[in-house]
Specification:
Blueprint lengths: L1 H15 L23 H10 L31 E19 L3 E4 L7 E14 L3 E23 L4 E23 L3 E19 L5 E19 L5 E14 L4 E17 L2
Antiparallel strand pairs: 1-2, 1-3, 1-9, 2-4, 3-4, 4-5, 5-6, 6-7, 7-8, 8-9
Length: about 270
């Protein structure tokens, strides 16, 4: 027993001297410098004021990805119709009628080549973004009474006659249109043309008349400007070339030339 009692103190000293077996040391405020101390109230305030972070990252899209049209921009949607009316004058470069015998009626040497015209129709958009495209259909009336014309014979002699001419036209085809900014539109179209004409001439013993249907083709263009009411006003021109069989002793009425028009459109 005496030996055991003598060994125990040595074992206790050895265990205390073993590395890594020190008892944890309590850290007190005195171990830290004064500059390292942070009040608990400051930590709480900083925690409350810190912004909340989103659970998932979000990628901001540039504003240009969703362009906002101008308040005054003219927006034309597919399937929407733009209705147009017009008033103008025809300036034909050729108005002739074949008659029996060696001769013809020349209207462009008189004033039969200038006819007032009125009409209207619509353009239906089928698609397109920057450039709109679709189908148009229009009709027009033109005519003149007591217009001067000349019957030219084979020898070159000309005899004056008076002509009453009434023309009804139905035409249409594909069109393309583009807006230049918010207030200006430019368009163009072309297609077939159906024409009905009623013709009557008198004077110098050369009275004759006839009527009939014919066909041809046209091309037109124009420019329009938007008003605050969103209506469009502008100017246009149409070129056409047609031939109508008048029947009877008269032959074909051949007409080609240009119409100059003032236009008014609405529907956007």
């Amino acid at each position: 027993m005496a030996r055991i009692a003598a060994i125990v103190p040595f074992l206790l000293l050895a265990s205390c001297a073993t590395p890594g077996r020190h008892a944890p040391r309590e850290i007190v405020a005195s171990d830290l410098g004064a500059d390292e101390l942070v009040p608990a109230s400051d930590i709480a305030n900083e925690t409350r004021s810190a912004p909340l972070q989103p659970a998932l990252p979000q990628t901001a899209l540039p504003q240009e990805a969703f362009p906002i049209p101008s308040r005054n921009a003219m927006v034309w949607r597919p399937g929407q119709a733009l209705m147009q009316g017009f008033l103008g004058v025809s300036y034909f470069s050729d108005v002739t009628v074949d008659i029996d015998g060696p001769g013809e009626v020349d209207g462009d040497d008189g004033d039969l080549d200038e006819l007032p015209v009125i009409g209207g129709g619509g353009q239906w958009k089928l698609g397109g973004d920057r450039i709109d495209f679709g189908i148009e259909g229009l009709l027009s009336f033109s005519g003149r009474a007591d217009a001067a014309a000349f019957v030219v014979g084979g020898g070159g002699a000309a005899v004056a006659v008076e002509v009453d001419l009434l023309i009804f036209e139905l035409y249409g085809g594909p069109f393309a249109s583009i807006f230049l900014g918010d207030k200006t539109r430019v368009y163009g179209a072309a297609g077939p043309l159906l024409q009905w004409a009623d013709y009557n001439q008198s004077g110098n013993g050369l009275g004759d008349d006839g009527s009939g249907f014919g066909s041809g083709y046209y091309a037109r263009t124009g420019i329009e400007f938007a008003l605050p009411s969103r209506a469009l006003i502008g100017f246009g021109a149409r070129w056409s070339d047609t031939s109508v069989d008048l029947g009877g002793s008269l032959g074909d009425l051949d007409i080609d030339g240009v119409q100059v028009l003032f236009t008014v459109s609405s529907g956007l």
